[in-house]
């Protein structure tokens, strides 16, 4: 692998965590990454609190949409270099066969959509998910991906998820 990498972040609903990861990888990858997100059972809309937290952190939310992972398993879809699940339920599901056999990893991020309580508690859950993803994507961006074979890349990206 060299230079520019296509990333796909997966979650069940594709309404918060995977969407935030998509935005962060595109912004923090400094042109090295083109990232997308998708869900096994997409909710059909991006969670408004996820959009608000991203905007307040200074990230653009323009063009974001909740979409099915089947879009990325079809002929003509972008070939992925790395597919990362960010929710435990999506990690346990049987994923489509991705064109190009990308490296895969799992990063367990608590679901902020499941947070209950006051508006402040819910917003804090979204902010914590954003911070956890931001830390992991910074570490991913620091990897010399071009120097790694697929198995080593998978191991290192999985280790980032345990941090």
Describe how the helices and strands are arranged.
Layout: E1 5-11, H1 17-28, E2 33-39, H2 48-56, E3 82-85, H3 88-92, E4 103-106, H4 119-142, H5 150-162
Parallel strand pairs: 1-2, 1-3, 3-4
What does this molecule look like?
The chain has 163 residues and is of the alpha/beta class. It has one domain: Response regulator (Rossmann fold, 3-Layer(aba) Sandwich). The chain has helices at 17-28, 48-56, 88-92, 119-142, 150-162; strands at 5-11, 33-39, 82-85, 103-106. It has a four-stranded parallel beta sheet with strand order 2-1-3-4. Helix 1 crosses helix 4 and helix 2 (48-56) crosses helix 4. The radius of gyration is 15 Å and the shape is globular. The two termini are 24 Å apart. The model has no long low-confidence stretch (mean pLDDT 90).
The main sheet comes to:
4 strands, parallel
The main sheet orders its strands as 2-1-3-4
Helix count equals 5
Number of strands: 4
CATH topology: Rossmann fold
Secondary-structure element string: EHEHEHEHH
Q: How many domains make up the coordinates?
A: 1
